[in-house]
Amino acid sequence: MILVSACLCGINCKYNGGSNLNEDILKLLAEGKAIPVCPEQLGGLTTPRATKEIEGGTGAGVLDGTARVMGSDGKDTTDSFIRGAMEVLGIAKKANIKEAILKARSPSCGAGHIYDGTFSGRVIEGNGVTAELLKRNGIRVTEI
Ligand code: SF4
Question: What is the pTM of this model?
Fold first, then answer.
């Protein structure tokens, strides 16, 4: 079983109320091979919601307490992002997940590339909070 970002399955959990439907991921779900998760919703955030970016680092810094997740509305949502990541890790452990395919550039799901925290569209190397936590727990994470 593979853990996947829920928005890739066509679930409307994206910040703007839409999805990031990917037909290959939807096929995995239809075949019963994928478990969809949205860490931001699991962390208690609403949909739609303000866009978020990691300020002062990457998901690693957020988990280590040296960076924070800020909204375009100026609100600090670091706690929600950490809570959502922990929820996803709990699901992954219960389902004995070894692999995840997550949405690139998200401050939660990005696994290798995220926005730089300036809301300017610039991308830097690094993981989102959930991708980082999954990797730290031995789960292979790729982004799409
Ligand atoms: S947190 Fe992940 S699953 Fe949820 S909308 Fe963002 S990219 Fe998709």
Answer: 0.98
The verdict on the CB of residue 106 being under 6 Å from ligand 1 is yes
Phi and psi at residue 82, to the nearest 5°:
-70, -40
Average pLDDT, consecutive stretches of 10 residues, N- to C-terminus, the chain (144 residues): 98 98 98 98 98 98 98 98 98 98 98 98 98 98 98
Atom of ligand 1 nearest to the CA of 47: 5
Six-digit token string for 129:
């909070």
Q: What's the CA gap between 64 and 26, in Å, rounded? A: 34
98 is written with which tokens? 């070894």
Tokens of 130: 């959930």
